[in-house]
Amino acid sequence: MGRVIDIQNLSKRYGDTVAVDGLSFTVQPGRVTGFLGPNGAGKSTTMRMALGLDHPTGGRVLIGDRHYRELADPLRRVGSMLEARDVHPGRSAYGHLLWMARSNRIPAARVREVLELVGLEKVARHRVRGFSLGMTQRLGIAAALLGDPPVLLLDEPVNGLDPEGVRWIRNLMRGLAAEGRTVFVSSHLMSEMALTADHLVVISRGRLLADTSTREFIEANSRSRVRIRTPEPERMRRALAAAGVRVRQAADGTLEAYGTEAARVGDLASASGLTVHEIGTETASLEEAFMRLTGDGADHRTSGPDTGDGTGHRTTASDTGDGTGHPAAGPRSGERRAGRRG
C-alpha cells in the first residue's frame, strides 16, 4: 500500500457551520509534515475524517489508494493519536496495549517493545488513572506505533511533555520520517514545528492557506531585517534614512533596517565614518510568518516546554478505542497531570 495521504476537495458541515471547506493537499512520505492553523481551523476534523471517525460532507481522503475503512489491518497501516486520554482509567498501560494488539492480530511481544520505546516500561502495570498528561501522551504514541505502521497521524503529540520529552518526540518523528514513513502532525507550538517539520500545510477557517516547505513558508511570509549595533545610533539612523532605508530602533537599542542587505549597511557606515560593533541579517520566526499569513490573533503559542523540499506555495482565502491507536502512559518528572485542554 502507498504511503501518501491524499486529500481532495474535503468538506465538512455541521448544520450551518462549515468546519472544513474544500481542502486539497497531499502528505508525502520521508518527511515530517506540520499541520498548522488557529483553534477551530478544522485540523482535528480533517484528521478525524482521514481516520473514518467523521464522515465528509464532500470530497475524500485516501491513504495510499484506499479509504481508511477499507484497510484490512488498519493499525498496521496507519498509527494515530488524536486524543491520548481516551482510554479506560482502570486499565494498565500494558493491559490497554495488549488489548489493542490482540484485537489487531499484533504479537504480544510488540507491546513491551513500544513501552520501552516511549519510556513507560517501569510503569507498564500501573493504572492509567494515575498518569500525568505527559505520561498519557507517551502511551498514546506507543499505541500509534504498536502496529509499526508506515503512516502516522499525530494531533498535538508534545502536549504535556517536559523538555526531555519534547526533544524525544521531535527526534522520534524525524527518525520515523527518515525511515521513509509518512508523518503528519498538528501542533500549536510554532517554535517546535520550526525545529521538527520539513513541510507545512496551513489552514484557517477550514481553507488551505499554504502547502510548502518550512523554509519557503517563512521566506514567503516574512521580511528579513538587518540588525545593527552601534554606539552612534542617531547618526546611523540618519545615514540609512538618507539612503532610503527604513529603520527602527529596537527596545535593546539596536537598529533594525528593512529592505536592504548587511553589505550595503556596512558600506554606508564606512562611507559615513560610523563605528559599528555588529551587523547581521535576521529572518522571521515561524510564528511571525504564520501571523503575517493568517493576519489574526489565533491561539498559536510560540514556545513549549522545550525550548524539505516543497511543492510551492498556495494562498486562498468517550472512547475512541476503535483500533486506530488513541490511549494513555507512564511517569516522567516535570510532566503535568492530565486535564482537559482549552
From TrEMBL:
PROSITE patterns: ABC_TRANSPORTER_2
Listed SUPFAM superfamilies: P-loop containing nucleoside triphosphate hydrolases
GO molecular function: ATP binding; ATP hydrolysis activity
Keyword Transport attached: yes
Disordered: annotated segments: 295-342
Segments crossing the lipid bilayer: none
UniProt biased composition (Basic and acidic residues): 333-342
The entry's keywords: ATP-binding, Nucleotide-binding, Transport
SMART domains attached to this UniProt entry: AAA
Glycoprotein keyword on record: no
Domain ABC transporter: 5-230
Recorded family membership: Belongs to the ABC transporter superfamily.
Entry protein name: ABC transporter ATP-binding protein
Organism: Planobispora rosea
